[in-house]
Structure formats: C-alpha cells, structure tokens
Amino acid sequence: MAEKKKFLLRIDERVYAALEKWAADDLRSINSQIEYLLTDSLKKSNRLQPNNLSDEKEHKTTPNDD
C-alpha cells in the first residue's frame, strides 16, 4: 500500500459538522469521507489518472511486423 501524505486542514465548523454527519451516514471516518470526496471530484474532472495506467503501458503487446 502506498504511503499517505499527512497535512493539516483548517475547515469551517459548519462544513466539518456536515462532513461528520455524512461520514457517519456512510459508515466512514471523516478523514476517509474527505479523501473519498476529493478522489471522486478529481476523477470526474479528469485530473486523476488511474493507478494502473503505468502498469497497462508496460504490459501492452505490440503486433509483430515479421
């Protein structure tokens, strides 16, 4: 598993309370909920490449021209 970056997040109390409730509804920790929301947003905006992109490039075969 890849290392996760640690950082401090300052957030409005109302936003935190809403995230806390949403996380509880989804049976997630607040940290996991924030990571899920950020990841989902990045994927939808095509700013996050799939994890296996480099693996796919290495394993692709090219047809022989022989």
Quick summary of this structure?
The protein is mainly alpha-helical and 66 residues long. It is built from 3 helices and no strands. It has a domain of 34 residues.
Structure description:
The structure is a single chain. Helix 1 (13-25) packs across helix 2 (30-44). This protein has helices spanning 13-25, 30-44, 53-59. With 66 residues, the protein is mainly alpha-helical. The radius of gyration is 18 Å and the shape is globular. 53% of the residues lie in helices and 0% in strands. It has a domain at 13-46. The model has no long low-confidence stretch (mean pLDDT 85). It is built from three helices and no strands. It starts with 12 loop residues before the first helix and ends in a 7-residue tail after the last helix.
List keywords for this structure.
mainly alpha, 0% strand, 66 residues, single chain
Termini gap:
41 Å
Shape: globular
Tally of helical runs: 3
Extended strand count: 0
Give me the Rg, rounded: 18 Å
Helix fraction, binned, reads 40-55%
- Average pLDDT, to the nearest integer? 85
Q: Secondary-structure element order, as H and E? A: HHH
What class would the helix/strand composition place it in? Answer: mainly alpha
Biggest sheet character: none
Question: Percent of residues in beta strands?
Answer: under 5%
Low-confidence stretches: none
